[in-house]
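Feature request, filed as a ticket because there's no other form

It would be nice if the structure record came with a short human-readable summary line next to the tokens. Right now we just get the raw output. Example of a typical job, pasted below so the devs can see what we mean:
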Amino acid sequence: MDPMPPAEELVARVREIALALPETREEEAWRGTRWRVRQATIAHLITVLPDRPSAYAEATGHPGPATVLTFRSTGDELLALTNAGLPYFKPAWSPTVVGLVIDDDTDWAEVAELVTESYRFCAPQKLSRRLDART
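Raw output as currently delivered:
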């Protein structure tokens, strides 16, 4: 049995953040939902059920059920998030991906900042400048 998709209300919250960024699109991922700019994934929301998918269960140290959001980070933020401990985690599959276990205490303003920074990391400079022009 494949893991269930993330709860629609969580998808809707991340959707509102991600689709406000220039030329971002939403699509079904191999599991869960992801948001992309061009070919780069800026955020991926997935539900982890007991040890499935196992890479997420290993990365979080949480066998599930849990909903996690992965995104890209760099520099001091990457270092800080990597060392923060749960609800943040550092998956082994990419040097720039960080994850966040979503729960009742999740700070959605912080999620918006993290997804926006992930966008800045992934987007071409032209699109990033369009984002800067809006703020």
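Something like this underneath would help us a lot:
DSSP finds five helices and six strands in the chain.
Residues 25 and 36 are 5 Å apart (CA to CA).
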